[in-house]
């Protein structure tokens, strides 16, 4: 399956501020990189995080701009480190995870799927703190280290030889196929 179909998240840069007042005619701008399926959800997540970090809310603020951020080299495989916090049934936990993907958005999509599978954490209970590209030498997790070895080969255990032409194919053959090479 195509990797682009599995990436259901996009990365957005959302810039907003408080509404201008007499005391503060030019309010400070706040910029965030948000992972969301569309612009509407990105704006909503922006106000959710901004209200936790600063004394600002949607009723007394405005969005200045929303831009989608695209990967510079989407065809190269890279290692990504993701710092996150999530709410479990017992409390709030911080976590660092590593993924090997082609884009930041694909790595975050994999992270959300992984958190749902391993920890039963829903999208709303996972907060991505930081996403960074990790150098090959700085990879910490053994499940990613095993994939970055030079000369890595994967076995092909069950290869069925097919005839070159359809007319050479027979339905009944006297011996079993040899699939091990």
Written description of the protein model:
With about 180 residues, the chain is an alpha+beta fold. The protein has helices at about 5, 40-55, 105-120, 140-145; strands spanning about 10-20, 30-35, 60-70, 80-85, 90-100, 125-135. The strands form 2 sheets. Strands 2-1-3 form a 3-stranded antiparallel β-sheet. A 3-stranded antiparallel β-sheet has the order 5-4-6, covered by helices on one side. Strand 4 and strand 5 form a beta hairpin. It is elongated. The protein starts with a helix and ends in a 36-residue tail after the last helix.
Structure at a glance:
The chain is α+β, with helices and mostly antiparallel strands and 181 residues long. It has four helices and six strands.
Question: What are the defining features of this structure?
Answer:
181 residues; alpha+beta; 3-stranded antiparallel β-sheet
Task: Walk me through the topology.
Layout: H1 3-6, E1 10-18, E2 29-36, H2 39-53, E3 61-69, E4 78-87, E5 92-101, H3 104-119, E6 126-134, H4 142-145
Antiparallel strand pairs: 1-2, 1-3, 4-5, 4-6
Order of helices and strands: HEEHEEEHEH
Q: Widest sheet: strand order?
A: 2-1-3
Structural class: alpha+beta
| DSSP E strands, number | 6
Largest sheet features = 3 strands, antiparallel
The helix content is 10-25%
SS strand fraction: 25-35%
